[in-house]
Amino acid sequence: MNDDRKTGAPVPDREQENENVDFIRAIVKDDLAAGRNEGRVHTRFPPEPNGYLHIGHSKAILLNYGIAQEFGGKFNLRFDDTNPEKEETEYVESIKADLRWLGADWEDREFFASDYFDQLYAWAVHLITAGKAFVCSQSLEDVRAYRGTVTEPGRPSPDRERPAEESLRLFEGMKNGEFDEGQYTLRAKIDMAHSNMKMRDPLLYRIRKVHHHRTGDQWCIYPFYDFAHGQSDAIEGITHSICTLEFEVNRPLYDWFIENLPVPHKPRQIEFARLNLTYTVMSKRKLLKLVQEGHVSGWDDPRMPTISGLRRLGYTPSSIRNFNERIGIAKRSSTVDLDLLKWALREELNQTADRVMAVLRPLKVVITNYPEGQVEQIECVNNPEDPASGTREVPFSREIWIEQDDFREEAPRKFFRLKPGAEVRLKHAYFITCDAVVKDPDTGEVVELRCSYDPETRGGDSPDGRKVKGTLHWVSADHAVDAEVRLYDNLFREPFPDQGGNYLDNLNPNSLEVLTGCKLEPGLGGVEPGYRCQFMRQGYFFADPQDSQPGRPVFNRTVTLKDSWAKLEAGGKTG
Ligand code: ATP
Ligand code: MG
């Protein structure tokens, strides 16, 4: 990572043809220029419906959808649902909702690999008939043991030379439920000495007597992913089968299937590096465990790197798209700084979010020289970055709340917030000076400040040019709306949670702090779930789509105003 001098954003290393075109788009351009695929461009996103989508998937979605859009092509959504026991309709629905939210439109082209089970079965029969597949009785352990190693060739299965007619009969028996799970498999007959282990007579079908979320109990044999994936692309007329780098070793096998089957179309596979993020785990298996073991409240817990978690935290689709544009597409793996994702969000919210006042940990201030019962409406700018956002009125009165942190009785010289005898500005309102501190007689805890205000400083400016360094946000006590505020932080405390043993050991014990009795300016009382704003000096916040309701707001902290290192740099400065 280096720094982007213009914008201050952390920038990942890229590997691009030129400013605008990554290597995959360059291939697509080239194919179009050469007239391949009858001038068509057709991509797809092929999730396995065994979990919710995460931020890594957004890279694959936006890449595939983006290419289809830019080159006048088509984009399919295809569920690769060959693994019946792990797949659920709940996942299918969540995946579709997430794609829609990200803005990826598959129109009416929603497919399932299970739609192709008949075709795949017919193609398996085709291979057997051609002497290129056989029914094998080896146990999975033996299959593994016979496969050999990278340095040693494998040994052939004793069933490798089984006559085609016999394999056909057995395969039909497998399909008809005549055998037990594990009794037989169907394997391709390729090369047990191949340098690529994937080519050593790979498994094509297994017996699984389980219910499938779409085909029900129709099938008791299921194709392996490797036998389904490329052929599904071929059936759909996919021109560019874009997938992540770990499938590079599968490519010779996928090509072998395509060469040896009467497919209607030959897709080209291109691999790119998957997205890894610091402070994040991305494997669905690991995310599922976080959910199942209750480390988070669900797949959409705002700390999860899932699309639904990010959405609930307050991310916008456009910030995720901008993030993906920034990271670009590369052929070599790297890990992107989580701060870049947060930066993309902050950049956007800075332009769009209204600045409002909310006191999260309230301390009462009584302005002793302010007339009792008087209320003034103070005009506040909604968003200085957006003149069209206008202003609003916020009531000011004798008793207000300020942040506990904004007062220190024993303060260092450079503490520019409130301390005994010091003067600060209340944002948009007046200068106040702290005259006295009221403490709980038993605990010694500060419970109230007695301050006086200067009526000449209305609007936050002093007529005599007197300077104050600190500016505090505040909320009128009589008018405040109570709220719950959830302060979310990184789910993991280590930048590489997977390293060094168990990722669960690296969970951040302070990833969520729930504050109740927070005091909001009155206009926030009625906000709808999904409302976004900046709590001045605190960060960007989002009215929780599930738990917030008008009159009883619940806010999630989406992102702080600055990343933590920037905060340290800024030292004690405020305002
Ligand atoms: P996991 O290993 O977590 O189960 P997966 O890759 O098996 O993830 P799929 O549902 O198969 O999950 O993924 C669908 C598509 O999304 C695939 O084409 C895959 O290459 C892509 N994808 C998955 N994770 C990432 C990632 N971190 N970055 C970019 N693309 C990804
Ligand atoms: Mg997968």
Descriptive notes:
With 575 residues, the protein is α/β, with parallel strands linked by helices. It has three domains: 21-274, HUPs (Rossmann fold); 277-352, Orthogonal Bundle (Glutamyl-tRNA Synthetase, domain 2), CATH 1.10.1160.10; 354-570, Ribosomal Protein L25, Chain P, CATH 2.40.240.10. The protein has a seven-stranded mixed beta sheet with strand order 14-27-28-29-25-26-15, with helices on one face. Strands 23-20-21-22-16-19-24 form a seven-stranded mixed beta sheet, with no helix packed on it. A four-stranded antiparallel beta sheet has the order 6-7-8-9. Strand 20 (423-426) and strand 21 (431-439) form a beta hairpin. The longest helix is centred in the first third of the chain and has 16 residues, at 55-70. It starts with a strand and ends in a 5-residue tail after the last helix. Residues 1-5, 13-17 and 565-575 have low confidence and may be disordered. The chain binds adenosine-5'-triphosphate and magnesium ion (MG).
Short description:
With 575 residues, this protein is α/β, with parallel strands linked by helices. Helix content is 25%, strand content 23%. It is elongated and about 100 Å long.
